[in-house]
Design goal:
single chain, 317 residues, alpha+beta, Rossmann fold, Tumour Suppressor Smad4, 8 helices
Length: 317
Amino acid sequence: MSQQQNNDSVDDWIFIVNPMAGGGTVRKRWTAIQASLQAAGIRFHAVFTERKFHAAELAERAIAEGHRQLVAVGGDGTAHEVVNGILRQATCAPEEVTFTLLPVGTGNDWVKTHGIPKDTDRWLSFFRRGKTALQDVGWASYHVDGQAQKRFFINVAGLSYDAYVARRAEAYKTQVSSTVFYLFLIFRCLFEFRVPRLRVVYDGKTDEQRFYTINLGICRYSGGGLQLVPHAVPDDGKLALTLAGHISKLGVLLVTPFFYSGKIAWHPKVFLAQVTNVTVESADNQPVLLEADGEFLGEGPVQVGILHKKLRVLTNA
């Protein structure tokens, strides 16, 4: 694809487009989306990703060139990459950059919190109103092949079963719609997953047991509409922590509807808290797996923390 609006100025919006998002849906729809943007009189310049995590590099480059308004075109994974570019660049304070997502990809959970429409015409109306707010950003340190890594996230991070599913999802997650896909994987992976014994330290407290899943949320929704952190508030300076103990396979099947309704706290093996930092490590030599914003990242030991109101976003909430 060629770049659009090559006479861009630093006042233009930069649209960072992931053509492969949604199993190639963005590539198929981009011509029509571009025409809608032009018809609406939006000054923009489009750049296109070519590889995994390229969106973060494009965001860093745009900011270094003086741009302060970025749109990710794709799904939650594309948003995740662009935000990491915003947070890791050293040109300006991240709060000086305004960010939003034009949701076209497979997973569109982050937009639910901010009331961002999925329909392009309605999105353009939302976009033109230009209401901004600051939301929190989570960070996670972990390991890949024994090497320490760090990643930022804007929605939900998951360990244990959630991360196991995310790792399996990498092979075929764009084949079906997000909700159907996650239900399919939840049930497919359930019978091969071994619940690990983990040691969790949060705000000075320690809990060691077998954990079916551990979630840390900035926003409420993940996995195609799941509410594993229903108590998440995007700008309160806290991580919404959900600890789910060793629930049986039958128990998981029975409680799945409550994952979508946000009423998981009633379960006796589910504990909810709001914290500022969490450390998770293995207590039985089984790997600690980590995902964030639906992207599988790596293994533990894992540390997670929060940056208060570090991302300026367009919102309709």
